[in-house]
């Protein structure tokens, strides 16, 4: 059984190599007329965004590329409530450059007693040793 399968596979391979060759020559003449550019000019544009009101995850990004020059920005909201916006460029001559901007006023939650308790405990401990 295995010998029969092996013979069929070998016969199929031989047919594919030799029997298909004439058909391949006909198509090859067609392909010679078509010029293929293997170096395509790099160019793209994309954008992405999230706005989840349940988790307060809000961010976005846009980027473009034209040849060897990439330009874009992204923004997101920090845990302190400020928005961070980063504009960036990259190219062969200047490398990667970014400008970071913050918008809004940072808000930090006040935990009652955290610093007062620390300093009071520190002072009591310090006074006790002298």
UniProtKB/TrEMBL annotation:
The name on file for this protein is Uncharacterized protein
Molecular-function GO term, any one: structural constituent of cuticle
Source organism superkingdom: Eukaryota
**Which key words are in the record?**
Cuticle, Signal
* Signal peptide limits: 1-16
Q: Which organism is it from?
A: Nezara viridula (Southern green stink bug)
Q: What's one Pfam family the UniProt record gives for this protein?
A: Chitin_bind_4
This protein's GO cellular component annotations are: extracellular matrix; extracellular space
């Amino acid at each position: 059984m295995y010998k029969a399968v092996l013979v069929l596979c070998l016969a199929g391979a031989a047919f594919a190599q030799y029997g298909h060759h004439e058909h391949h020559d006909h198509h090859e003449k067609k392909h010679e007329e078509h010029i293929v550019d293997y170096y395509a000019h790099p160019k793209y544009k994309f954008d992405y965004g999230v706005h989840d009101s349940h988790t307060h995850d809000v961010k976005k990004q846009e980027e473009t590329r034209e040849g060897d020059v990439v330009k874009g920005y992204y923004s997101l909201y920090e845990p302190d409530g400020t928005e961070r916006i980063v504009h960036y460029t990259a190219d062969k001559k200047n490398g990667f450059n970014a400008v970071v901007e913050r918008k809004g006023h940072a808000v930090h939650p006040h935990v009652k007693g955290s610093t007062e308790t620390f300093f009071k405990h520190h002072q009591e401990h310090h006074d006790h040793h002298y």
